[in-house]
Amino acid sequence: MRAGRGASAWAAGLTTAAALAGVMTMAPAVLRGEVLAQRLDWLPLLGLSFSLRLDGLGLLFAGLILGIGLLVIIYARFYLSARDPMGRFFTFLLLFQGSMLGIVLSDNILLLAVFWELTSLSSFLLIGFWSHLPAGRQGARMALAVTGAGGLALLGGFLLLGRIAGSFELSVILTKAAEVQASPLYLPCLILILLGAFTKSAQFPFQFWLPQAMAAPTPVSAYLHSATMVKAGIFLMARLWPVLAGTPEWFAIVTTTGLITMLLGAWVALFKDDLKAMLAYSTVSHLGLITLLLGLGTKAALLAAVFHILNHASFKAALFLSAGIVDHEAGTRKIPRLGGLARLMPLTFVVATLAALAMAGLPPLNGFLSKEMLLEEAAQTTFAGSEWVLAVLVTLGAAVSAGYSFRLIGAVFLGPVRQDYPSKPHDPGLGMSGPVLLLVALVLAIGLAPMLVAGGLMQAAVQASAGGPVEVYIKLWHGLQTPALWMSVAAIGGGLLCVGALPRLQAIDRTLSLPEAKVIFDRTIAALTQAARAVTRITSDTALSRAVLLILATFAVLAAVAFATGTHTAGTRPSTRLELAPAVLWLGVALPTIAVTLMYRDRLLALILMGGVGLMISVGFAYLAAPDLALTQISVEVVTVLLLLLALNILPKTAPPEPAARRWRDAGLAGVAGLGMAALAYALLTRNAAFDPISAFHLAQSKPGAGGNNAVNTIIVDFRAFDTYGEIIVLGIAALVIAAVGYPLRRSIKPIAPASADAHPVIFGVAARLLLPIAMMVGVYLFLRGHNLPGGGFVAGLVFAIAMMLQYLAEGEERTFARQRVPYLALMGAGVVIATATGMAAWAFGKPYLTSWFGYVTLPPLDKFELATASLFDLGVFLCVLGSVLAMLHALSRITKRVG
Amino acid sequence: MEALVATAIGLLTASGVYLALRPRSFEVILGMSLMSYAVNLFLFATGRLAPGLPPIISSTATGYTDPLPQALVLTAIVISFGMTAVLVMLAVGAYLQSGSDAVDPEDRQE
Question: By the CB < 8 Å criterion, does A697 face chain B?
Fold first, then answer.
């Protein structure tokens, strides 16, 4: 779709605004502490239901997703260039937004896992939006590989969790903390779920995908890496906090991971010259900070974590969008090429500086508040056996964080104005600056009046996350006695020091030479690809017949092993008496079968022999009390032989000789396969079924339930009509495939030789014409009696097809098809439509699909006769079979005519 | 009679497998058809053998054979025709476009 830029932005924006308004109308109830829920069963047997809940935590996230989403949509409208397909962008963005909302609103964890995967997929599309850039494609692939693998682990963890808790509903799971933590499966379950959360939230050692994902357009980065995608892992940990947190395992894994991620991310961010890369690593660092807080397991730390989620989302989105503005207006986002922008872009300077200072943790901005809470918690925690290790390390992290924030302000905006910007920088229009202004206003407002602006939301969110009452009290000034204040001062001082000593630190970083994660990832992927190729090379090659040979040989070996390792006794079912007729029939099947194997090189002979086998089998069916099968087999046999005759018109009439070695090899395998099947069939036939077949029901209900005496037919058109429905559709698809393959073939080949002038004997033609109405009458008769006696739609369709093809054989393609102006494929389609409509008609009577009805009708001159909707369904079957078979033969015959 | 049906199934399978392993497409199609016979017979045999007891409800019948395998095999016969037809079309198409009816590229001699 190529809608106008404005139209697609409006559509996306209004959708998001409407959703936001919808969430807001529910906010008052949620803020009062209510949990809103909505439930719809999806696959109840699997425990999967479409149940949604909205509580405080969900409200916080839904608000962030939709609110920042709306701002990003407005911004993107002005950011993307005229060459970018705007409609596609907003489609992906809305898809992603919807999946994110699904994660935070799901009450069923399986549903949550589905949405989780959807965010992985849609973020892949967004990150790789500029698919012409190799970096975009690589970044997207890496993000998908890492988060997709994490999603798999998450699903495993969820299945374990659901098994322990006995339910997949969060509302139940959240009440089962004691059971979950006492379970022996707790640790594997925890590790799997954390793998999912850590990969999504870019925690060490999975942090590497996030910076690579910066190849995305900036609005995407702003959205994915501030408010949404990477917060999904954080959300999950906060969501399951009451169930999983508080154990020593949780503390050890989550706190340590968060700490490492925080320090590592901050350190790398300090030296990045690309503005977006710096922000990416700072995001990694801040996510580590939140993870660390969640790991501590206290309610105060939880409050700090949830509060920092809100704060980080606001200042980081503002920073990403500002970076986008700088990139857009100055033409580069490389720090060495920037500087002095304060005078050229005053508005951007002010908002970006405020956001960066919030990131650095300066008062009176919101980042200061949550950092203060973090330092307070760290000071009170014993980690690695010491009371001050965590406090020192966290202060160090905060100092480096302040350091890169200061560097960002200084290197981009301060300093002398340069003359060599790639393009002339100026403040952007309101469309791009407006969203940033709003975000920075939020940063300030929360900082100045935290309780007024965010107190209620925090109360509801933390309460929902903790699963119990929590006291929320946030204020700017705690007095001089608190250790956090002095740690904060130290951090800010350290930050200034970092900027001052940047060259020296850079030298240290170079000597450390941290391993580049992307290289490791690429090497791993390359090794995996190599291994996959090696396996493919062993298991499959270009020769199809060798592949078939391998598959059959594997089956034979498996069957032999199974037989050798199992025990068996002779069957006890009394055997049926041997008579003369079946013995003759057996010879009728066996002799041509052996003959065709020996004489297959003469193809016409082989075809005739095979037809003979089919005929004998149909007689066998008749003898073995299966008249319907006999009728079907014999008519299918005729059609198949016709079809293969047509094919032989084109294909060579003889097969070339083959080396004896190959023949003996194949004969050996064929012998084994035959012996195995014969033994299996004999074992089956000489035993009774392990449990009673369900056919007693079909036999008993055939007349009273379906109104027909022919139990086979009532099964086909009534009891198991849905199977039949699927089967006629398969047949129809086969016909379509053949027509589709045949059409271009017909055009691509030139007629080789003109058809001989009079190859069609007159007598045959006349006889065929006489036969047509008779055959058709037989078809109608078979169709009508099908419900009570052998016959039915399948057989009738085949008989009709044979009658019509006979005309073709007798009179040639041209004359026949000139007269038979039947659109075969349309006939097939009509059959499917009739069958479908018959099935749907049951809905009108409030019955499930394909429920049948029958009754008795009396028309005065005739006897009382029966009407069943199943007959109408059978009519659909009839038309579909007729249309398909004729379409297949017709497609082939058209080619034959050209060639032959 | 069980032995007769079982050996017939075995013979059809063996012949079908042998032909399906031939290097040319027409024989493969014949082989697949023979294997279809074998499989259909086998499925039919899961209802066990009951000559003379067709599953047509009547007041004079002394018993009925199992109708369900018959219903399944009936549709299977028609579907295997569809499959054969697709194979034939592919074989003809491959022959016309490559000039050879060999299944594997390495068996192409013409």
Answer: no
Would you list the domain boundaries of chain A? 298-500, 504-539, 543-565+576-685, 705-900
Own/partner contacts of A356-359, CB < 8 Å, gap of 24 or more, are A356/A315, A356/A319, A356/A405, A356/A406, A356/A408, A356/A409, A357/A405, A357/A409, A358/A311, A358/A314, A358/A315, A358/A443, A358/A447, A359/A282, A359/A286, A359/A315, A359/A316, A359/A319, A359/A401, A359/A405
CA pseudo-torsion sign A257, A263, A265, A268: negative
For residue range A429-465, what is the model confidence (pLDDT) as tens digits? 888 888 999 999 999 998 888 888 888 888 888 888 8
- Tell me how far apart the alpha carbons of residues A314 and B6 are, in angstroms, rounded to a whole number: 76
Tokens for B40?
Answer: 């259909």
Cα dihedral value B26, B27, B28, B30, nearest 10: 90
CATH number reported for the structural domain that contains residue B85 in this entry: 1.10.287.3510
pLDDT of residue A547: 82
Q: Give the gap in angstroms from C-alpha B62 to the nearest C-alpha of chain A.
A: 13
Q: How far apart are CA B74 and CA B56, in angstroms?
A: 15
Does the pLDDT of residue A1 top 50, yes or no?
no
Entry pTM: 0.66
Q: Lowest mean pLDDT of A6-20, A428-442, A469-483, B90-104, name the range.
A: A469-483
Residue from the list A545, A629, A671 with its beta carbon closest to the beta carbon of B73: A629
Could you tell me which chain A residue has the CA closest to the CA of B55? A711
Task: Output the CA torsion sign for A94, A97, A103, A104.
Answer: negative
pLDDT at A3: 52
Residue owning tokens 């951007």: A348
Q: Which residues in chain B touch residue A675, judged by CB atoms under 8 angstroms apart?
A: 10, 14
Question: Given B23, B52, B82, which is nearest A731 (Cβ)?
Answer: B82
pLDDT of residue A814: 67
Which positions in chain A touch B94 (Cβ < 8 Å)? none
CB contact under 8 A, A682 and B79: no
Residues of chain A in contact with residue B3, where contact means CB-CB under 8 angstroms, are 575, 682
Q: Is residue B45 part of a domain?
A: yes
What are the residues whose beta carbons fall under 8 Å from the beta carbon of B93, sequence distance 6 or more? Answer: A741, A742, A745
Each residue's pLDDT tens digit, A667-710: 999 999 999 999 999 998 888 887 787 888 888 888 887 778 88
Closest by Cβ to B84, choosing from A640, A651, A741: A640
Contact B4 A546 (CB under 8 A): no
Establish if B59 belongs to a structural domain.
Answer: no
Cis peptide before A364 (omega within 30 of 0): yes
Cross-chain Cβ contact B11/A658 below 8 Å: no
Beta-carbon contacts of A28 under 8 Å, excluding residues fewer than 6 positions away, are none
Helix axes A430-448, A56-79, angle to 10 degrees: 150
Peptide bond before residue A248 is cis, with ω within 30 degrees of 0: no
Distance (Å, rounded) from C-alpha A730 to C-alpha A72? 47
Contact residues for A170 (Cβ-Cβ < 8 A; gap 6+):
A53, A106, A107, A108, A109, A112, A239
Among the partner-chain residues B11, B18, B70, the one whose CB lies closest to the CB of A712 is B70
Quick one: DSSP state of residue A866? E
Residue A678: per-residue pLDDT: 94
**List of chain A residues whose C-beta atoms are within 8 Å of the C-beta of residue B32:** none
From B66's Cα to the closest Cα of chain A, the distance in A is 6
Q: Is residue B8 included in any domain, yes or no?
A: yes
Pairs across A and B, CB distance < 8 A: 317
Number of domains in chain B: 1
Would you state the pLDDT for residue A878?
A: 92
Containing domain of residue B42, as a range? 2-54+64-107
User: In this structure, is residue B35 part of a structural domain?
Assistant: yes
Mind telling me how many Å the CA of B63 is from chain A's nearest CA?
10
